[in-house]
Amino acid sequence: MTGGPLTVLTGVNRPSAPTSGGMVLVGDLYRAMPATRTVFLGRTPAAQQWVAAFDQLITLSTVKCPLGRAYDAYVEELTDEVRALIEEVRPDAIHAQYPGLALSLALTRAAVRIPVVSIAHGPDVIAAERSADERARLEEVAAASAAIVAPTPALADRLDRLTRHRFTDRLTVIPWGIPLERARARDRPPHRSGPLSLVHAGRLDDNKSTVTVIEALALAGQRHRLTVIGEGSLRGDLERRARALGLRDRVVFEPFLPRGELWSRLPGFDAFVFTTKGIEAFGLVLIEAQAHALPVAYSDLPGVRETLGGAGLPYVPGDPHSLARALDELGQDTGLRAALAEAAVKNARRYDIATTGRRLQELTLRLTPLNPEAATAAPIMIR
């Protein structure tokens, strides 16, 4: 194929809506690749404002099946459906999101001679570290991929170890980004010391460890207030923990907010708190907070440290005592908050989604028949 736009087949095996960091990223990413025709495979319901990110959205019909005895049969049926769609779409390349999960397995098994770029998001790596079966599935997708993309060197290193260094030369780091032109940093410097109005946004699950900031509030010397924005399996437990600690009047829980609403709220807070204690692929919400000039207190994980570029206040992951000290320091030191706010905006400027899209498109073109030098191209970028 020559002369036309690059056609990419991709998808995520979830309802087609921006309900998580990964889904928000995917919507932004393909909007940022205007020279690419993107066909997206997803599930119902589909949010109309998000569907517009793609040239075509196809709803998968194979009934989802959780892990268990019927899982292999489910992946086989899904592969048959994807194979028929590949014949219909005739893509130049496939982007396998969340390598090792069901749809990435189906895409790579059905790809035959179509080049595959697998794109790691974090939950896929967490699954592979917890289960030998999941690790074998991740390795299968990696073996079928011409390139493997991770958003940080830390996640790339974990993938490299999980796949026993068999595909090191296929790994490349392409940092994620946000549509920076839509972010509006607040222009008011911190003007008072004392208790902070804090915000935390993300999935409410064990790895995100929202309980760390709730317990930190009970330990802090100042009466900080916290707004928790998000949904997840642990919301009920977190609400009960806040009540048990006597924080009913200082912790507010709100549902997941679409990006526009979240971004309009961010400038009204004093600081953002990031609490993940295990694997974090990139921490997209950190860049969203920084782009709005919020100081960030963050759990000191390798990938997060890279993303923030030192423009935040670290604490020991999962340690509410350490976080309480960090929050009190932020509350007492307006100069520190002002410096972190300025550094935050500068750091966020490194992560424009247009750059992410351009680099992924360039990588994909190197692998496709649209590139006349594909057959003799140099090896894929090594981080």
Summary of the model, kept short:
The chain is an alpha/beta fold and 383 residues long. 42% of the residues lie in helices and 17% in strands.
Task: Record keyword descriptors for this entry.
seven-stranded parallel sheet, single chain, 383 residues, disordered C terminus, 2 domains, six-stranded parallel sheet, alpha/beta, Rossmann fold, 15 helices
Task: Describe the model.
- The chain is an alpha/beta fold and 383 residues long.
- The chain has two domains: 6-177 and 352-376, Rossmann fold (3-Layer(aba) Sandwich); 180-348, Glycogen Phosphorylase B (Rossmann fold, 3-Layer(aba) Sandwich).
- The protein has helices at 21-31, 48-51, 71-89, 102-111, 123-130, 132-144, 153-162, 211-219, 235-244, 259-265, 284-291, 302-308, 320-332, 334-348, 353-367; strands at 6-16, 36-46, 56-59, 93-97, 116-119, 147-150, 171-173, 197-201, 225-229, 251-254, 271-274, 296-299, 313-315.
- The radius of gyration is 21 Å and the shape is globular.
- The two termini are 30 Å apart.
- Residues 374-383 have low confidence and may be disordered.
- CATH level-two architecture of the largest domain: 3-Layer(aba) Sandwich
Radius of gyration: 21 Å
SSE order: EHEHEHEHEHHEHEEHEHEHEHEHEHHH
Low-confidence stretches: 374-383
Strand order of the largest sheet: 3-2-1-4-5-6-7
The shape, in one word, is globular
CA distance, first residue to last residue: 30 Å
Enter the CATH topology name of the largest domain: Rossmann fold
Number of helices: 15
Strand content: 15-25%
Helical coverage, percent range = 40-55%
CATH class of the largest domain: Alpha Beta
- Number of separate structural domains: 2
Number of strands: 13
Mean pLDDT: 91
The main sheet comes to: 7 strands, parallel
Q: Kindly report the name of the CATH homologous superfamily of the largest domain.
A: Glycogen Phosphorylase B
**How does the helix and strand content classify structurally?**
alpha/beta
